[in-house]
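Researcher: Next sequence.
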Amino acid sequence: MKTIRLRAEGRELPVGKIICLARNYAEHAKEMKGEVPDRPVLFLKPSTALLAPNDTIRLPEFSTEVHHEVELVVVVGKLAQSIPAERAMDYVLGYAVGVDLTARDLQKRAKERGEPWAVAKGFDGSAPVSEVTLALEVGEPTDLPLSLKINGEIRQSGRTSQMIFKIPEFLSFASSIFTLEPGDLLFTGTPSGVGPVLSGDVIEAEIGRVGYARWPVE
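Model: Next structure:
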């Protein structure tokens, strides 16, 4: 079973579902030539996609175009079913820095054929995630800076205030479809600037007050 480390407590938390929010930043939706959604668009990654900090990202042989997408990750702390948005933050254990790795060539093909994104989004190692910082340490997450560097060069930069669907709305919507359990991870979307990841690269991702992590690529 995959686990994620709680920085303050020094313990491992088993990870269940990884629920991701697509096109949650308007500029990213535009760069992907997609419409800005009027309701949350969700997809899933298996827990086997999880990759710990400093572990090596191994690019899949079946793709020639893997892209990076830096994201704030919400870690669920207790069972949640159809929770109202105004109470949603009570169910947050903490936050982490995540990278949604996407086999863009496969995703494009799937979109053209009307097929699911499971392979393009869910391959092993496609969800690198930092250690978890507890919600009390982070405080209000509504306007945190997030960035991603490749080999020391900034490729993505944005703020969580640019989200279309805010965290309480995302939690409420997701919990109306899936029962959320402790250890579930919610990827909240990425700002613009996504691009390719190549063998030999080093990815560094950072979110203010949440944390920093790096991953070498092979």
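Model: The CA atoms of residues 108 and 120 lie 9 Å apart. The longest helix spans residues 104-113.
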